[in-house]
Design brief:
The structure holds 2 protein chains of 2 kinds. By secondary structure, chain A is an all-alpha fold. Helices cover about 75% and strands about 0% of the residues of chain A. Chain B is an all-alpha fold. Classes of the chains: A mainly alpha, B mainly alpha.
Chain lengths: ~170, ~110
């Protein structure tokens, strides 16, 4: 039980370090740590499939992509553009206002201090696969088209514009 | 495995709500206070992950698998978004030699 609170504390700490550290590479590494704590949260929720997917896709693929781009562009602390202190202060105030609004909304709705009601095995790979390939088969196939489109778009955007030799 | 389930049963759903709200607010603050486009995209990832965790928590507490399937689709969408977004960042950097979000303000005219 206390594992959850400890991991929640770590997640919040690393998330804060992500947005406040000056060096972009440090930011990415802190974000990787944040995602690692999220993986542990998924394991605590008994969502094993999501834990593995989070580990492989987020930490393995997306974060490596961020790190690649950062190192490719050769960004470091010196080139980091910073906003003025006033804007930072106002941004922090706005974020706090958002948080206060959400917490107030949760306070107003009847406090659902509910505990686990259904069966806790829904997150296993077997059960999730059955749902995914029966009820959600069409969205699953459509997401493959989405990924194909993203791949084509990314290559098209990042490709260098080459002058046509034989016009 | 039983210990994990018992672990789950000890925490009220409200605490997940509060925790995910905090992470989401941190992501919003990150978008507001940083000027580096890549850091802004990372903050968006943070927000997406907060929502993912809350969906998974609701799904696990209700015993309904639909929420976790939805998280799976959100992850696929996040991967596509990051790929296209970083390609755009690389292209902008090639043209302006900067990852400052302000360098995109010339798109206005």
């Amino acid at each position: 039980m206390s594992v959850f609170y400890f991991m929640a504390f770590l997640s919040i700490f690393f998330a804060l370090m992500t947005i406040f550290s000056k060096n972009p590479v440090n930011s990415v590494l802190y974000l990787v740590l944040t995602f690692f704590t999220f993986t542990i949260h998924y394991i605590l929720l008994n969502a094993q499939f999501l834990a593995v997917v989070n580990f492989i896709v987020y930490m393995g693929a997306i974060m490596v992509l961020f790190l690649f781009v950062l190192m490719l562009l050769n960004l470091n602390k010196d080139t980091e553009p910073m906003k003025s202190h006033f804007v930072k202060f106002m941004g922090a105030i706005a974020g706090m206002c958002l948080l206060a609004t959400m917490l107030g909304a949760f306070h107003v709705i009847e406090s659902n201090n509910e505990y686990v009601t259904g069966n806790t095995d829904v997150g296993l790979v077997k059960n999730l696969g059955k749902v995914l390939f029966n009820e959600f088969l069409l969205p699953f196939e459509l997401s493959s088209i989405l990924l194909l489109t993203a791949m084509v778009g990314a290559i098209l955007l990042a490709k260098k514009e080459t002058k046509k030799v034989n016009g | 495995m039983d210990s994990i389930v018992q672990n789950l049963q000890g925490i009220p759903l409200n605490h997940y709500l509060i925790f995910c709200s905090i992470i989401f607010a941190i992501g919003v603050v990150g978008v507001l206070i940083r000027r580096n486009v890549i850091i802004i995209m990372m903050s968006i990832e943070l927000m997406l992950n907060a929502v993912n965790l809350l969906l998974a928590a609701f799904s696990a507490y209700r015993g309904d698998a639909s929420g976790q399937v939805f998280v799976f689709f959100v992850m696929a969408l996040a991967a596509a978004e990051v790929a296209v977004g970083l390609a755009i960042v690389v292209m902008v950097y090639r043209n302006t030699k900067s990852v400052d979000i302000e360098s995109l303000s010339k798109l206005r005219w």
